[in-house]
Write a structure and sequence with these properties.
Alpha-Beta Plaits, two-stranded antiparallel sheet, globular
C-alpha cells in the first residue's frame, strides 16, 4: 500500500478522524508569568515549567505522550543528545578496536543506527531514490524521523513482564523499574516495535521513560524541550491527536497528500489490539520505509491460535504414532 493510500485510509476512518480546526498548529500563548523568569541563571526550578515551554500543566491522571511530526524533522539529533544527557546514557555506535574511540559506521549520516538499551531516542535518516536536481524547489530526498518508545495503550512488554518491573504510571506511560527487573528478557521479543532491550552490563531491561522523573517535577521531557523545529511535541494525548489531524489536513491542502498518522486510534500502527500509541507519528511514506511495522500485533492475541496449533500438532503426532504401532503389530 502506498503512502497516499495509507493517508486516505487514515482520514476516511471515522474512529481516527477528529474535528479539524483552523487555528495554528504549533504556536501557543506564553503565560504572563513567563515574564518573571528572564535571568540567564535561575535560583531554582521554575514551578510547572512545562506550562511555559510546552503550554501544558502536567497533572497526574492525564495521558501524556509525543506527537512526532516527521515533516518538520531536520535530523539535528538534538533530541538524542538531550535524552542521553538527562538520563546519563553512554554514546552508542561502532567502536575502533585499537583506541576505543567512536568510529563512523560508513552507512549513513545516522551513526547511532537504532534504538537500544542506551539509546532511547533515535533519529533515522532515510534517503529516497532520485536526484535533488530533479525535484521541486525547496524539497529534499531525505526522510527523517525521531523514533522512541510508543508507550502503547496496550503494551506488549508490560503484558509479558512476570515480575511487575514494567508498570503504567499515573501519566499513562510505561516505565521499567530496574531494581525489580530480573533480566528474563520476555519483554524484548514481545515488543512489536523492537524498542526495549536488555543491557549486557547489568542484565536489566531499559527503554524510554517519557522522562517520568521530569513529569513528576513539572518539566517537559528533555527531547521535546530541545527540539528546535517542534517536530517532537509533548502534551495530553487527546490534544495532540487533534493537533495532528489539523497538521495532516494542512499538509494535504499544501499538496503533501502522502501525509498520514501512524499510531492514532483505528489507523496504521494501532492494529491488532494495541488500540493507540501514546507516542505517535506523522509519516510521509509507508511505515516500513521508516523501519516501523505496517500492522503490529500483540503477542497475546496469538496465544489462542498458537495453543490450538500446538494441540493439533500433538494430536496428529499421537495418531501417527498409534498408526505406526498398529502397523508394526500387524506385520
Amino acid at each position: 500500500m502506498s503512502a497516499v493510500n495509507y493517508a486516505e485510509t487514515e482520514l476516511s476512518n471515522p474512529q481516527a478522524r477528529l474535528t479539524l480546526e483552523s487555528h495554528p498548529v504549533h504556536p501557543f500563548p506564553v503565560p504572563e508569568r513567563g515574564t518573571q523568569y528572564q535571568d540567564s541563571i535561575l535560583k531554582g526550578l521554575i514551578p510547572d515549567e512545562s506550562e511555559l515551554t510546552a503550554g501544558v500543566k502536567i497533572e497526574p491522571g492525564t495521558a501524556y505522550g509525543f506527537f512526532t511530526d516527521t515533516s518538520l524533522c531536520i535530523g539535528c539529533k538534538a533530541c538524542e543528545v538531550a535524552c542521553k544527557e538527562w538520563n546519563n546514557l553512554p554514546a552508542d555506535g561502532p567502536f575502533e578496536n585499537d583506541h576505543g574511540r567512536l568510529a563512523l559506521s560508513g552507512q549513513s549520516y545516522d551513526n547511532t543506527g537504532r534504538l537500544s538499551c542506551t539509546t532511547w531516542r533515535h533519529v533515522a535518516f532515510v534517503e529516497q531514490p532520485g536526484r535533488a536536481t530533479e525535484m521541486a524547489p525547496f524539497q529534499s530526498q531525505w526522510l527523517m524521523m525521531s523514533d522512541v518508545c510508543k508507550h502503547c495503550v496496550r503494551a506488549a512488554c508490560l503484558e509479558a513482564c512476570p515480575t511487575g518491573a514494567l508498570f503504567r504510571t499515573e501519566f499513562d506511560t510505561v516505565v521499567v523499574q530496574q531494581d525489580v527487573c530480573n533480566g528474563c528478557g520476555y519483554c524484548v521479543p514481545s515488543c512489536p516495535f523492537g524498542v526495549i532491550e536488555t543491557n549486557a552490563h547489568d542484565g536489566k531491561a531499559h527503554k524510554c521513560t517519557l522522562c517520568y522523573d521530569r513529569l513528576k517535577g513539572g518539566l517537559e521531557p528533555a527531547c521535546a524541550k530541545s527540539c528546535p523545529t517542534n517536530s517532537i511535541q509533548f502534551g495530553p494525548v487527546d490534544e495532540l491527536l487533534r493537533r495532528a489531524e489539523r497538521r495532516v489536513h494542512d499538509l494535504h491542502e499544501q499538496g503533501a497528500r502522502s501525509a498520514y498518522l501512524y499510531g492514532a486510534p483505528g489507523g496504521p500502527g494501532a492494529t491488532a489490539g494495541i488500540e493507540r500509541l501514546n507516542a505517535f507519528f506523522l509519516l510521509l511514506d509507508r511505515p516500513e520505509v521508516y523501519g516501523l511495522p505496517a500492522a503490529p500485533t500483540l503477542p497475546s492475541t496469538r496465544v489462542r491460535a498458537g495453543l490450538l496449533n500446538g494441540l493439533l500438532t500433538m494430536a496428529g503426532l499421537a495418531l501417527a504414532a498409534a498408526a505406526a504401532i498398529t502397523t508394526t503389530r500387524r506385520s
